[in-house]
Amino acid sequence: MRPRLAFFDLDGTVGLIRAGWMRIMVRQALEALRATGTKETDAELRPIIEDYIFRLTGKPTILQMEALAENVRQRGGTPLEAARYKENFLSAIGEVADQRMKELRNGYRRPELHMVPGTRAVLEDLRRLGVKLYLVSGTEHDVVQVETDAFDITRFFDGGVYGTPSDDSTFSKRGLAEQVVANGEAAGPEIISFGDGNAEMEAVKNVGGTAIGLATLEPECRSVDPWKRERLIAAGADYIIPNYLCWNELKEHLFAE
Q1: Tens of pLDDT along 145-174?
Q2: Counting C-beta atoms within 10 Å of the first and last residue's C-beta, which end of the chain has fewer, N or C?
Q3: Which residues contact 169 (CB under 8 A, 6 or more apart)?
């Protein structure tokens, strides 16, 4: 069926303001788990950490912090509150993100230099084709809104721009996908989703749609990251792309009669 509606994630799918966030989150978790006195090596801990981070990517950040707290507890440690872990993580990634946003606001760099290559052309083409667009992110709503405005892409998302309202919100990408189907905006097979995490794949596959995995090797986003590719395929991705420069070829598959 011809696509009538598309979901886009933000970080690593559209914007690169927080490129490198996973390295920072892994480092934070390694430090917390080492402090428990565990005999596990970094090489043994890293896959455990990366697994829960990827599984929860696209969902509210607090869930990854709750998973960290549980892993500390399992090793006999006394974890910080998940909200404190989140505060520490946001402080670390915020230093990088704030500098990139400053470059945008002051005109030092064009918005495209902090976006996945080809993003704007895809958004323009999908709107031209009459596809309704939603941007849905696990990042806090206020931050998402500021960034999409800075990129000058808010206008493309006629379905709306959504971030996580609060840590205790029940809002989810899967829930929104089910809602648009229930409202008659599109049938499940008429929905496509672009994302670099498990949540985007799960949400669209749950309603029978098509999932496009952004296995971008950040920050250049010129080639496929094998680690992301493997996990996105396992999560249900129908297509894997490193960026949107292959859009014309992908479009032939998505819009084939």
Answers
A1: 999 999 999 999 999 999 988 776 677 899
A2: C
A3: 60
Write out pLDDT tens, residues 211-238: 999 999 998 899 999 999 999 999 999 9
Give the helix/strand (H/E) hosting 53.
Answer: helix 42-56
Distance CA 83, CA 63 (A): 10
CB 89 within 8 A of CB 66: no
List, edge to edge, every strand of the sheet that includes 5-8. 160-164, 132-140, 5-8, 191-195, 210-214, 239-241
Q: pLDDT tens across 55-114, in order?
A: 999 888 999 999 999 999 999 999 999 999 999 999 999 988 999 999 888 877 788 989
Residue 243 to residue 12: CA distance in whole angstroms: 10
User: Other CB atoms closer than 10 Å to residue 152's CB: what's the count?
Assistant: 11
DSSP structure string for 59-95: S-HHHHHHHHHHHHHHTT--PPPHHHHHHHHHHHHHH
- Cα–Cα distance for residue pair 148/126, rounded to 1 Å: 17
Quick one: pLDDT at residue 168? 66
Whole-angstrom distance, CA of residue 153 vs CA of residue 231: 28
